[in-house]
Write a sequence for this structure.
């Protein structure tokens, strides 16, 4: 079975058990029809919302499961109904809301990796000092302040090689490798291209990552809660109208679950290529198979609107930080 289908099947079975549980309890304990009907409707809505999956096309069909898949699984787990999620009494109900907010970063930190080898630690250190000095000089020309640059010592492993004789290969110490990282803090999104060119000019070619920083996370969380509360109230009014129920003033927040997904977690990849199969002939051993190099494409694969009640800032044309909030509220229903 496809590994993406397994969580869906397990979730469906769990929801089916809940449906059966509600029906059997209604018959066993002669529960009021109104509360049973309400519980069945809420489970039906969960079933419908959880399994409305969109189709994809294009080269993304070659995609490998990555950041988006893990994020979607995490979001689904927050909405999964269990036996403990059933209303605690015959005259209570849950109303929930799930909101996604896309936020552009206020600042960034780019981290470059630098490494050099030498017969001695001093030799490796001198080579590295030259490269880092060239890099920091180029950064100053880009108006990057000294306080926004930090060089971090990482490791200093030994390097071993083999000394060959007629009858043996003896391992011996041949040198040292020095590794450091250079972190650059900046606020202009487009500066990254110039940073890469400056690093290459100093013979530094390893851009490890770019961290995305949102300064006021508290304001983002407050916006999410405001929107989620409005959705809960809207749903509640709809249920009262459709089902003819009346809510008594008894409210309790059962779940307030937040999650944050940074761009470094949300990149997927694919290889848009097809290769011919090679049948093994009797004399294949005389051939050396040289396979073509097939380029791999990496792309930012953000969470979409699937499963969310509302998306704030829905249009995504650049990597953004994605914040989610799942809010579940218990209400008592008048008998």
């Amino acid at each position: 079975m496809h590994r993406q289908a397994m969580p869906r099947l397990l979730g469906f079975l769990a929801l089916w058990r809940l449906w059966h549980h509600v029906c059997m309890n209604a018959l066993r304990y002669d529960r009021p029809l109104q509360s049973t009907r309400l519980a069945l409707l809420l489970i039906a809505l969960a079933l419908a919302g959880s399994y409305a999956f969109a189709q994809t096309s294009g080269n993304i069909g070659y995609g490998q499961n990555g950041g988006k898949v893990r994020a979607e699984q995490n979001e689904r787990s927050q909405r999964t109904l269990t036996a403990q999620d059933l209303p605690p009494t015959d005259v209570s109900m849950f109303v929930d809301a799930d909101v996604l907010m896309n936020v552009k970063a206020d600042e960034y930190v780019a981290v470059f990796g630098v490494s050099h080898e030498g017969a001695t630690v001093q030799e490796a250190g001198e080579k590295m000092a030259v490269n880092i000095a060239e890099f920091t000089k180029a950064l100053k020309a880009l108006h990057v302040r000294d306080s926004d640059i930090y060089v971090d010592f990482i490791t200093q492993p030994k390097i071993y090689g083999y000394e060959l004789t007629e009858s043996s290969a003896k391992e011996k110490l041949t040198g040292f490798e020095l590794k450091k990282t250079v972190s650059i803090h900046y606020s202009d999104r487009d500066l990254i291209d110039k940073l890469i060119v400056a690093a290459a000019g100093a013979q530094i070619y390893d851009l490890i990552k770019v961290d995305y920083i949102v300064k006021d996370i508290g304001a983002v969380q407050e916006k999410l809660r405001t929107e989620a509360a409005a959705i809960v109230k809207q749903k509640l009014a709809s249920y009262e109208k459709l089902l003819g129920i009346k809510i008594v003033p008894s409210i309790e927040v059962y779940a307030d679950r937040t999650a944050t997904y940074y761009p470094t977690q949300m990149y997927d990849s694919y290889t848009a290529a097809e290769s011919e199969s090679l049948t093994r002939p009797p004399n294949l051993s005389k051939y050396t198979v040289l396979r073509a190099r097939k380029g791999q494409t990496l792309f930012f694969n953000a969470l979409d609107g699937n499963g969310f009640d509302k998306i704030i800032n829905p249009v995504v044309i650049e990597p953004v930080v994605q914040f989610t909030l799942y809010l579940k509220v218990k209400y008592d229903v008048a008998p």
Remarks:
- Confidence is low (pLDDT under 50) at residues 1-16, 26-64.
- The longest helix spans residues 217-243.
